[in-house]
From TrEMBL:
PPR repeats lie at residues 85-119. This is Pentatricopeptide repeat-containing protein. NCBIfam families: PPR. Keywords: Repeat. The keyword Repeat applies. GO terms for biological process: RNA modification. Pfam families: PPR (PF01535), PPR_2 (PF13041). InterPro entries: PPR_At4g14850-like_plant, PPR_rpt, TPR-like_helical_dom_sf. One of its GO terms (molecular function) is mRNA binding.
């Protein structure tokens, strides 16, 4: 028996890359992009390929416009979606807060509720970032009530955001934050005693 001789042939990578693959790569990192010209080019491609209502694409586009402080364009993208899901609402609420459009963030939250969608553990911390000052205390209390009603205190990040917001609402807010912190500490201690 003779040994077969193996010939290795180098594998050549194609010298071209498909435009679809390039577009997919641009979409993947779009939500981190701050170059407005680049974002507008990708937006044009999105419109051309009729992807402007895609629930995967729209949040990335809104985030990109938000980072480049182009909220008029972010609002335009958001309004193009006929039935936004919670993720899209959260993305838009976050964009509003990042661009100091606190009232629009809350209007969007109330619209979300009117449309029968429930907030999740991302919604409330985004809204709470918008609450800064004594005049926001009633809204912080409203959010607190929602969080208790729907059981969001199991997620440690959510009540911590609430405490932080209370502290930004003047002396009354600090007192509420202290009561909340003490109540959380009692629950945590009771929970640990239960498992000892």
């Amino acid at each position: 028996m003779s040994k077969q001789m193996q010939i290795s042939v180098p594998i050549r990578a194609p010298s071209w890359v498909s435009t679809r693959r390039i577009f997919q790569q641009k979409l993947q990192d779009l939500h981190k992009c701050t170059n407005l010209n680049h974002i507008k080019q990708v937006h044009a491609q999105i419109l051309k390929q009729n992807l402007h209502q895609d629930p995967y694409v729209a949040p990335k586009l809104i985030s990109a416009f938000s980072l480049s402080q182009q909220m008029a364009l972010a609002i335009y993208v958001f309004k193009q979606i006929p039935d936004p899901n919670v993720h899209l609402y959260n993305t838009f609420i976050r964009a509003c807060v990042q661009n100091s459009l606190s009232l629009l963030a809350f209007e969007t939250f109330f619209e979300m509720q009117r449309n029968g969608l429930f907030a999740d553990n991302f919604t409330y911390p985004f809204l709470l970032k918008a609450c800064n000052g004594q005049s926001w205390l009633p809204l912080v209390k409203m959010i607190h009530n929602h969080m208790e009603k729907y059981g969001f205190f199991q997620d440690l990040f959510v009540p911590n955001s609430l405490i932080d917001s209370y502290c930004k609402c003047g002396l009354l807010g600090v007192k509420s934050a202290m009561r909340l912190f003490m109540a959380m500490d009692e629950k945590r201690c009771g929970f640990l005693e239960f498992y000892d």
